[in-house]
Design brief:
- The complex is a heterodimer.
- Chain A has 13 helices and no strands.
- By secondary structure, chain A is mostly helical.
- Chain A is elongated and about 110 Å long.
- The two termini of chain A are about 20 Å apart.
- By secondary structure, chain B is α/β, with parallel strands linked by helices.
- Chain B has helices at about 1-20, 80-85, 115-125, 140-145, 160-165, 205-215, 225-235, 245-255, 280-295, 300-305, and strands at about 60, 90-95, 95, 100-105, 110, 130-135, 155-160, 170, 175, 180-185, 200-205, 220-225, 240-245, 260, 270-275, 325.
- In chain B, helix 3 (about 115-125) crosses helix 9.
- Chain B starts with a helix and ends with a strand.
- Classes of the chains: A mainly alpha, B alpha/beta.
- The interface between A and B is medium-sized, with 34 and 33 residues.
Chain lengths: ~425, ~325
């Protein structure tokens, strides 16, 4: 034993002897209990954080993705059906398939959204109005097949329902899901005040008991109590470390995944709506000024009047921070170029229609030759989709690890608490033994 | 006292528990019908009618002078000569007026009654009816396009009014329409008089919706942004009738065999081609082309092609309207 001692008047020891074993026993129970309690508090809180972090990765994130997919599928349906309307004769099978897939995707996403819970009013509006929308589209198609202008009227009504009712509900649902994700993410990364308070109290109690013992026995260190103190300090270290590790993962999942994802998704939806405007302006045959105005303001929102700002301009620094390889940044620059080319092709299309060359305007808008609006739009849409997928993958990767530190903290805190309590008990038991 | 109270409470609790045990009937869900974008029920009341300039005969146009020049040989310095040298006639047209001016969805070609009239003007200038460029302008902009020189002529079922005469020159009447009422077959409505308190659709800011508002039977006006939107409302059961010029109504009848035109003429609607006020030589030329079309059967041929099937319900029959000059 290498316990350091200090010479003390032997008389004092004798005087205290009558009361001390009882007091020491009480101290033993209190200290061991506090050490155990602090470990349990920390472990339980860490367990909750780990569950939350797991939810962020496996429930909130995917639910937010699904809501986004619903929003995107509906916008795509709107744009696709309008473009298909411009084709001569029967609509092209590729566009028909794309629309059908959009509706199937939206229905599946809607079913899952209902199962995910929350978003009640939005889900209700969407489930009630989606069949009405598809009904109007089919009516429009039936008239279009008979080459009657009434088809375009039903198409306009369908598109109005989509834009005024369905898309706002889907947008709201997606916003709610993102808010849930954000709330759970900050809860999972929140500092554990209670754990820290209990640890500090336990540490205080340990120091107090050790100081009293020192006064009584003049022995500076008691091995058991020192071990218990170390255990409590280690638990504290574990807690802070776990906090840093988990919130690091979680904020990385936001900065590298969900945040760039939401910016990119917004850009993609704006592009889809501009595409629908472009086609609807032509479907309206000379009375599509509202759609034309809409198209231009959406393109300005997307790339800015200067072609360098807008949503895509704002996404550049976000992606630069999110993707270390800067490969995404290059894709984004290409996407911005595609958007500018598209706007340019649209202007040529507009000039053709204004001059009465309707066939040429349609060719420029929905034809598949190089240099048409279709080509640039498709390129833009595909690149944004690819960037969005990358962001979602990064989110999954970062968020998936966030529950691990907390699990480590929970197990570690329990082990340390057991060790600390055992140490405290052993140390005090030794002192009690000295009185026998 | 306290015991009775608690017993009552227990009894009440028992009752509510029983009530909760039975499944409550699901409330009936009512469908929410979609509406065309921009439709309003009720329609906003149009601002007070602009007073028509008095003492004007809307039909009186400029009298043709001399013989019609041969195609391709227009008098030097004339408006027609400028058009001839340019190589094409610029026409402000309607692309949404079924049977009169609309894009054939199969070929994107602009076709219809008005379009053929415009092509006859091109034939008279160039000897080739294909030398036409149609510019796409919204209906509210058609007269401006002519007045500002962006188009040589507007051929878009424009009703001749004294008020519009202050902005453009009109040709002689080439199609006499009349505002009537379109209803579902078998609905029992016989005209505007039988539509008291019923919903009648018309396009926002037209003379037609004004007529609906001012009719003594006091129908309830519903507005939409296009006539096909009105037909959508009629098919969806959200209005009982549509009222406007019969030449527009006939385009709706052609798209839905379950509707019919009923009732007496509510208004007299002469239709003319519109030309710039400062090019009277062109108006005289166009009137001469119309005279020739009336005389040689061209007009009747065009009428039969587009309107033949609907002659019984139209105000305009297959005999062309007589021109009046001032």
């Amino acid at each position: 034993m290498t316990v350091m001692t200090r010479p003390a008047p032997s008389g004092r020891l004798r005087i205290a002897a009558g009361r001390t074993p009882g007091q020491l026993f009480l101290a033993l129970v209190a200290v061991a209990a506090m050490v155990l309690l602090s470990g349990i508090v920390v472990a339980v809180a860490a367990g909750q954080r780990s569950t939350l972090a797991d939810e962020v990765a496996t429930e909130d994130g995917p639910a937010a993705d699904r809501a986004l997919r619903l929003y995107r599928a509906l916008s795509d349906a709107d744009a696709t059906v309008a473009a298909a309307f411009l084709a001569t004769g029967v609509e092209p099978p590729a566009l028909r398939t794309r629309y059908d897939d959009d509706i199937a995707t939206a229905s599946a996403a809607l079913r899952r959204a209902a199962a995910d819970g929350g978003g009640g009013p939005q889900v209700e509006v969407l489930t009630a109005q989606l069949p009405v929308y598809t009904g109007l589209v089919e009516k429009a198609r039936a008239y279009q097949r008979q080459q009657l202008p009434l088809g375009a009227a039903y198409l306009r009504e369908a598109s109005g329902l989509m834009r005024d009712t369905l898309l706002p509900a889907a947008f709201e649902l997606s916003r709610e899901r993102r808010a849930e994700l954000g709330a759970d993410r900050s809860a999972a990364g929140a500092t554990q005040e209670w754990g820290l308070i209990v640890l500090v109290v336990t540490l205080g109690l340990l120091l107090f008991v050790q100081r009293r013992l020192f006064r009584r026995t003049n022995r500076v260190f008691n091995r058991g109590l020192v071990a218990a103190t170390l255990a409590v300090l280690l638990t504290g270290g574990l807690l802070v470390g776990g906090d840093i590790a988990a919130s690091g993962d979680l904020s990385a999942s936001h900065a590298r995944g969900s945040f760039p994802g939401s910016v990119l998704a917004q850009a993609q939806v704006v592009a889809l709506q501009a595409r629908a405007d472009e086609a609807l302006a032509l479907v309206a045959r000379g009375s599509g000024q509202e759609f034309e105005k809409d198209y231009n303001s959406r393109m300005a929102e997307l790339v800015g009047e200067d072609g360098k700002s807008g949503l895509l301009g704002r996404a550049a620094p976000v992606l630069a921070a999110a993707d270390r390889s800067s490969a995404d940044g290059r894709v984004l620059a290409d996407a911005a170029r595609a958007a500018r080319d598209w706007w340019e092709a649209h202007r040529r299309m507009r000039a053709a229609e204004d001059e009465g060359d309707y066939a040429q305007a349609v060719r420029l808008a929905v034809g598949t030759d190089p240099g048409t609006a279709t080509e640039h739009f498709t390129r833009l849409d595909e690149m944004l989709g690819q960037l969005l997928e990358n962001a979602q993958r990064r989110f999954g990767r970062e968020a998936a690890g966030a529950d691990v530190p907390w699990r480590f903290v929970a197990v570690g805190a329990m082990l340390l608490a057991l060790l600390g309590a055992a140490g405290a008990a052993a140390g005090l038991q030794q002192r009690i033994g000295e009185y026998r | 006292m306290r015991r009775t109270l608690s017993m009552v409470l227990i009894a009440l609790l028992g009752l509510t528990a029983c009530g909760g045990g039975e499944p409550a009937p699901e409330p009936a869900v009512k469908a929410r019908l979609p509406m065309p974008v921009g439709a309003h029920d009720p329609a906003p009341r149009p601002s007070a009618a602009a007073p028509a300039p008095g003492g004007c005969d809307p039909r009186a146009s400029l009298r043709p002078e001399g013989a019609l020049p041969a195609a391709g040989a227009m008098p030097a310095g004339s408006t027609m000569d400028t058009i001839l040298k340019r190589g094409r006639l610029i026409v402000a047209s309607d692309q949404n007026n079924y049977l009169f001016g609309f894009r054939d969805p199969g070929s994107y070609q602009l076709v219809g009654f008005d379009v053929e009239i415009a092509r006859e003007v091109a034939r008279a200038i160039f000897g080739d009816p294909d030398r036409v460029q149609y510019i796409s302008v919204p209906s509210a902009e058609r007269l401006n396009a002519v007045a500002q020189g962006r188009a040589d002529i507007a051929a878009a079922s424009i009703t001749i009014t004294c008020q519009r005469r202050q902005q453009v020159e009109f040709s002689s009447d080439y199609f006499t329409g009349a505002q009537k009422v379109l209803v579902r077959k078998g609905s029992g409505y016989t005209g505007m008089d039988s539509l008291r308190g019923k919903k009648v659709c018309a396009v926002t800011d037209t003379t037609s919706i004004r007529t609906v508002f001012e009719h003594p039977a006091q129908p309830l006006a519903v507005s939409a942004t296009s006539w096909t939107d009105c037909l959508v409302l009629l098919q969806q059961g959200q209005v009982d009738a549509i009222s406007t010029d019969d030449n527009i109504l006939v385009g709706l009848v052609a798209q839905d065999p379950h509707v019919e035109i009923v009732g007496p003429a509510l208004t007299d609607e002469p239709h003319g081609l519109a030309m710039p006020l400062d090019k009277p030589d062109f108006t005289r030329f166009v009137n001469q082309v119309l005279e020739r079309m009336r005389a040689d059967g061209t007009w009747t041929g065009i009428y039969r092609r587009w309107m033949g099937a609907y002659e019984p319900v139209l105000n305009q029959k297959s005999t062309p309207p007589q021109a009046r000059y001032r």
